[in-house]
Amino acid sequence: MHPNRITTTTPLSPSALRDADCLARFHRARILREPDATTNPMRDAGSTLHAAIAAYLVHLAATKRATDADEALSIGVNAAVGLTPEARAQHDSLWADWSDDFVRDTPDDALVEERFAFDADWEPCEFRSPAARWRGVLDLGYRRPGEGYGVIRDWKTGWKVPTGDLVENVQIRSYAHAALCRPEFAGVTSVETRLEFLRMHRVIPKTIPADVAAAFPAWIAPQIERIARAERDDRWPASVTPDCATCPWRNRCPEYLAAPTAPIPTETAGDWEAAVRALAALEIQCRDIKDALRVRLDACGPIAAGEGREYRLVPKKIREVADQELIMRMLAARAVEDEAISAALGLTLDATEKLLKSIVPRGMKGKAWDAFAAELVESGAVEVRTVQQATFAKTGEEEVSE
Question: Angle of helix 85-101 relative to helix 69-79, nearest 10 degrees?
């Protein structure tokens, strides 16, 4: 018997442990299996995008190609069949960005959408086996010939970025441990994990030494025991936190409704879908602006913007966005003015507004336009510099972005 034997009767996973931050939510989602009746375009787009990425990677490996634009287009279209318009817009935008940039440089035998499972004694077993007690899915895993380390890449389609040391991240540690148990990773001294945030074009790497990965069962044991104790006692207390904003069962939760100061106003129970639609609409229109602006700048080159400035394209940058959870809560409340939402995003209006309005999609005006124009500049897709700085750049002197 393993010293850190899993004693729960419920199969677990990294996402299940996230639910268990609130035992009441875990009970409803994982044991009672109460249906989630909410509509979440972001979640739906994430599911179809993962499926499309897996299909594309399998195709590239089978054909031994680095890219295939025609197949990427076909896979992206087929994966999005059945999505709502809001989810389809998010799927199309994320897929276009990812497939345009991706170039396969992995071995042909890389693990793609690889399911793994362990039984109660942490022995590998079939994913659907009744004995499985810990499960997960590796988006992409490989080890190049001759290298002493393995690589795990995980695509993220949401906004939430983990904080703190990723060695303390359940998903990261779980993936590294699962990789060590695969024959493809036999003898590696470490596993390099990469969380790739598609919306922000950001990659967070973390190298997990083999001994740390191997110790995952002992490290996770206290969290598993907390759930096992709740099962034995049949006690599932709720934890009222800002995460209640995304819980589909919050308005059936006595602890949440009785909280003297609920983190999210209870009257916004039906507004989560509206919040997601609002973000989807912002993404769609901002993408349209970027596309139109790129066409114009590609044809005309830098454009004078007045006040000694010119407007030009720059390479894609990492976009750091302020507290996205706060923004979702503000949108869910719907009582917040547009200016407050823009402030939470860290947006500022720029002197480029007049130039951008010359290519604005028909029908966009007022505050909505101001927010999108500012978001475009903040995203790093374009850059405003003084003419003097642009001249320096052309002469080879150090470029200073404004």
Answer: 160
| Interstrand relation of 190-197 and 202-209 (parallel, antiparallel or unpaired) | antiparallel
Say how many C-beta atoms besides its own lie within 10 A of residue 223's C-beta: 14
Same domain, yes or no: 287 and 198 = no
Tell me: do 186 and 330 sit in the same domain: no
- On whether both 24 and 158 belong to a single domain, the answer is yes
Q: In 10 A of CB 136, how many CB atoms?
A: 20
> What is the enclosing helix (H) or strand (E) of 385?
strand 382-386
Beta strands, E only, 82-126: 111-118
Which 8-state DSSP code applies to residue 124?
B
Q: How far is the first Cα of the chain from the last one, in angstroms, to the nearest whole number?
A: 62
* Long-range contacts of the stretch 359-366 (C-beta < 8 A, 24+): 359/289, 359/292, 359/293, 359/296, 360/289, 361/285, 361/288, 361/289, 361/292, 364/285
Q: What is the number of domains present in the chain? A: 2
- Express each pLDDT in 152-192 by its tens digit: 999 998 877 776 777 788 999 999 999 999 999 999 999 99
Which residue range(s) make up the domain with 289?
Answer: 271-394
Q: What is the pLDDT of residues 343-401, one digit of tens each?
A: 444 433 343 344 344 444 444 455 555 555 555 556 555 454 443 333 323 233 333 33
Are 312 and 378 within one domain?
yes
